[in-house]
């Protein structure tokens, strides 16, 4: 286990679990907290035994946004020179291992954006999503205006960003922001079980799947298909492809070696 002030990082078998832990501020995301997520991810990514990462918050809040107190007095030169909200947040988006956001309560502003940087969201029935920045006289600064329309379409993303209203878990699932809703008291258990399932597979194959699905957002269809096919071809150079197929034929469980 690593020592942090604003998060708790633990392992559960092959899963790395990051729990945001600033309850007094509903897990408002200050620089120190985001830096700590980055360092926890460095540790989990360097550890070959870890196959999937879960980020969660508390029952009341995944995260209520970037820390308003910390940024209220910033001037343009502070945020421009410091590349505010990009420098350390990019570490999260750059994670190559799969990441699940397990969201209960508020996921607002930067909290919603952090959840959307993960590969998918499992939501408690208590989850509330929104981009309320407009109410503060700013706009989303960590991808909200870009990732939300890709997830829920332009109409709903526009409405949410322009009004600042929140949507509940059921609406978020219908709209495609959320992969699955679970009862609040089962959230972390369900997320760990899902992550454990992912981590039981071949890690390099899982990483290639993540890269390939992400290509669907960043390229034209033919390019994405070519990227997928080359990745698919490359699995035939792996021991894990031989093992996975042999295990199927022999009607036994595969033993992947991440090779
Ligand atoms: N930043 C700093 N502190 C925050 C915070 C935030 N984003 N959200 C909540 N807190 C603090 C509150 O100030 C309060 O602290 P005190 O007890 O010291 O007063 C504590 O957390 C509890 O919050 P509330 O008393 O407000 O709790 P509530 O249950 O009445 O309301 C809430 C909950 C509706 C989520 C409300 O806290 C809220 O509206 N928070 C702000 C949401 C927001 O605007 N987020 C966007 C931030 S900007 C951003 O994220 C930019 C970006 O794109 C990266």
UniProtKB/TrEMBL annotation:
Keywords: Fatty acid metabolism, Lipid metabolism, Lyase. It catalyses: a 4-saturated-(3S)-3-hydroxyacyl-CoA = a (3E)-enoyl-CoA + H2O; a (3S)-3-hydroxyacyl-CoA = a (2E)-enoyl-CoA + H2O. It comes from the Bacteria. Pfam families: ECH_1 (PF00378). GO terms for molecular function: enoyl-CoA hydratase activity. Belongs to the enoyl-CoA hydratase/isomerase family. This is enoyl-CoA hydratase. The gene is fadB.
